[in-house]
């Protein structure tokens, strides 16, 4: 059975809805060409991985495919966030719980706005300014993303991870990372992975 694929969402408003701030021409190109390219690129990477699962991974450039998947799937995720983050007649200040959280974590709305604005303006090259909720510290943070990711897929929830920094294996395996990764399967706690999956799918 083929795996799932990404699809291009419709804009939640007309192409000219954000004028004069963003022109109809930009919105049309940005959504119909650029966002679509990310969807197609992510699906092409998934196709390559699916094919490799059938024919074997020998000689397959998993590093390159993983990079393509991260870049394009994150491009898709970020644009899917960006479109509904805007609306005709938007602006002003937030209400509700997010307003309280912004005041708590940034002091006041204007301080947040200045921090977020500087974060976005100072992205080196292509990228994003992001306001994110960081669950480990239970607070809002501002971040930059260069390109769309750093080989992560934005919005994903990690379920199972293997640390392949040398500090994780060098004393036992020296430079043989492959041997460490092969052996690592013997200590995986699948009950924990299953519980994390159940939690995120709830
Ligand atoms: Fe874009």
Task: Explain what the structure shows.
The chain contains seven helices and two strands, in the order ααααββααα. It is mostly helical. It has a domain at 1-91: Fe,Mn superoxide dismutase (SOD) domain (Helix Hairpins). The longest helix has 32 residues, at 24-55. The chain starts with 23 loop residues before the first helix and ends with a helix. The structure holds fe (ii) ion. Fe (ii) ion binds at residues 30, 34, 79.
Please name the defining characteristics of this protein.
7 helices; Helix Hairpins; globular; binds fe (ii) ion; mainly alpha; single chain; 202 residues; two-stranded antiparallel sheet
Walk me through the topology:
Layout (H helix, E strand, L loop, with lengths): L23 H32 L6 H21 L13 H11 L2 H13 L5 E8 L4 E8 L23 H4 L3 H8 L5 H12 L1
Antiparallel strand pairs: 1-2
Fe (ii) ion binds next to α1.
